[in-house]
TrEMBL record:
[4Fe-4S] cluster 1 binds at C371, C374, C377, C421. It is a peripheral membrane protein. The keyword Translocase applies. Keywords: 4Fe-4S, Cell membrane, Electron transport, Iron, Iron-sulfur, Membrane, Metal-binding, Repeat, Translocase, Transport. The keyword Protein transport does not apply. InterPro entries: 4Fe4S_Fe-S-bd, 4Fe4S_Fe_S_CS, Ion_transpt_RnfC/RsxC, Nuo51_FMN-bd, Nuo51_FMN-bd_sf, RnfC_N, Soluble_ligand-bd. This is Ion-translocating oxidoreductase complex subunit C. Its main location: membrane. Residues 359-391, 402-431 form the 4Fe-4S ferredoxin-type domain. The lineage of its organism: Bacteria, Bacillati, Bacillota, Clostridia, Peptostreptococcales. It is found in: Cell membrane.
């Protein structure tokens, strides 16, 4: 019997708008804006110039160091500019702008058919790095690094994160339902790379069809590959999909304060990432598109769409019939952990799991009041922290105290604290501000 984690909340999931919508391949956009920062680590460096003609899948920016990632053209066309452009999380970012020539040919050498069994771990890591695969759950950590744990932290367990606990989002759900065999193959090659044979697929129990499809697909590979993989129906509670929560629930292991999953011999990847791993290792296809949920009550026809990286939010929403109501808030990602946007002229990046257009009654708004010390945020925190302290310390610019005395860096920014706060305190913003100040302070040293 799997136990739950401490804290957590039960927001209305609002998934009904898109969970029945099959994955729809979007039209080729007339223009894509491809930021050079779509991953944790160093920004990629352009290898093309204005006026160059590029093909789909062609390298256009190379990684700058080990913790970085290559970036490829998502359409065929002409590079018309390399400039600072709107970015969903960084405000502005140097980006490569490509105008389509209405062709859709792969650059020479793609796709291929590769036998992964003949590859060494080093070769697989090099392929993932060269083809720009990063975590697609939002964190965008370069996958070649994540799947190359320190030799002193030998991994023995792999977990596929199929929880997708954020409200509204159904992209991973649709992939598990429609592409279950491909997801299972992605799990197989990922476990081969990690050299483990024990794994879990964690899916919340409000997704019975996904559980059924994945059980069948996993059974098919387990028989022939001698893999011990369990598909587990987890209690529906947010943030079930946070990797530290998944690890605790599925293995009983607890990632130490300031630690990583590899400290307890576990690696976690989400659904979209293992699909990208499979495409890269088996077919030689770089990460140039992703499945994204476009939803919210302001959207005419909510959908799950396979979008080219660099597609603007405006184009993505137009593929769904545009807006039927004025949007009170546009969010990249989910409503709990996503980032509000001030414009639709923002490009889809590798970590864009959702585009939400929300009306007034969908937005958790209200006047912010001082903390009343009710303790609800403490009860909701899945990491056992004191979120109210972070907001207070942010007001005092006491970010080092937040880090050293209150374990700021253990916060997973799930938003449970802000969700339950009766005073409508902007706790997550305070946490992000504190973390930014800590980061900038460290960089100055």
């Amino acid at each position: 019997m799997f136990k739950s984690f401490i804290g957590g909340v039960h927001p209305k999931d609002n998934k009904a708008m898109s969970e029945g919508c099959i994955i729809e391949k979007a039209p080729i956009p007339n223009k894509v804006v491809i930021p050079l920062r779509q991953h944790i680590g160093s920004m990629a460096i352009p290898v093309v110039k204005i006026g160059d003609i590029v093909k789909k899948g062609q390298l256009i920016a190379s990684n700058e160091g080990y913790i970085s990632s290559n970036i490829h053209a998502s359409i065929c066309g002409t590079v018309v500019d390399i400039c600072e452009y709107n970015h969903g999380t960084f405000g502005k970012c140097l980006s490569i702008i490509i105008e389509s020539n209405n062709e859709d040919d792969w650059v020479e050498g793609i796709p291929i058919n590769r036998n992964v069994d003949e590859l060494t771990h080093k070769e697989m890591a090099q392929i993932l790095q060269s083809l720009g695969v990063v975590g697609m759950g939002g964190a965008t950590f370069p996958t070649h690094v994540k799947l190359s744990p320190d030799e002193f932290k030998a991994v023995d367990t792999f977990i596929l994160n199929g929880a997708e606990c954020e409200p509204y989002l159904t992209a991973d759900y649709r992939m598990m339902v429609e592409w279950a065999d491909k997801v299972a193959q992605g799990i197989k090659v990922t476990m081969k790379m990690l050299k483990v044979n024990k794994g879990y697929v964690g899916i919340e129990d409000n997704k019975p069809l996904a559980i059924e499809k994945m059980q069948e697909a996993i059974k098919n590979i387990s028989i022939y590959e001698n893999l011990d993989i369990k598909v587990v129906a987890l209690p529906t509670k947010y943030p079930q999909g946070a990797e530290k929560m998944l690890i605790k629930v599925l293995t009983g292991r607890e990632v130490p304060s300031g630690g990583l999953p590899t400290d307890v011999k576990v690696v976690v990847q989400n659904v979209g990432t293992v699909v990208a791993i499979y495409d890269a290792l088996v077919n030689g296809i770089p990460l140039i598109e992703r499945v994204t949920t476009i939803s919210g009550r302001a959207i005419n026809n909510p959908k799950n769409m396979l979008l080219r990286i660099g597609t603007t939010f405006e184009d993505a929403i137009s593929y769904c019939g545009g807006l039927k109501y004025e949007a009170k808030k546009i969010i990249m990602g989910g409503p709990m952990m996503g980032f509000a946007q001030y414009t639709l002229d923002i490009p889809v990046v590798k970590g864009t799991s959702g585009i939400l257009a929300l009306i007034d009654k969908e937005v958790n708004q209200g006047t912010e009041f001082p903390c009343i010390r009710c303790g609800k945020c403490v009860q909701a925190c899945p990491m056992g922290l004191i979120p109210s302290a972070f907001a207070t310390l942010a007001e005092k610019n006491a970010y080092l105290e937040a880090k050293q005395e209150y374990s700021l860096l253990d916060c997973v920014e799930c938003g449970s604290c802000a969700y339950v706060c009766p005073s409508k305190r902007k706790i997550v913003q305070s946490i992000r501000y504190n973390k930014l100040q800590c980061s900038q302070s460290s960089n100055k040293k």
